[in-house]
Amino acid sequence: MKSGFIFLLTFIVALMLEAMPIPEQFVWYRPEWALLVLLYWIIALPFKVGIGAAWVLGLLVDLLQGSVLGQHSLTYVLIAYVCAVLYKRLRMYLRWQQGVFVFLLVSVNQLVGFWIDHYLGVAEPTLMIFMPAVITGLLWPWCFVILRSVRRLYSIS
Question: Most CB atoms within 10 A, among 89, 130, 132, 147?
Answer without folding.
Answer: 132
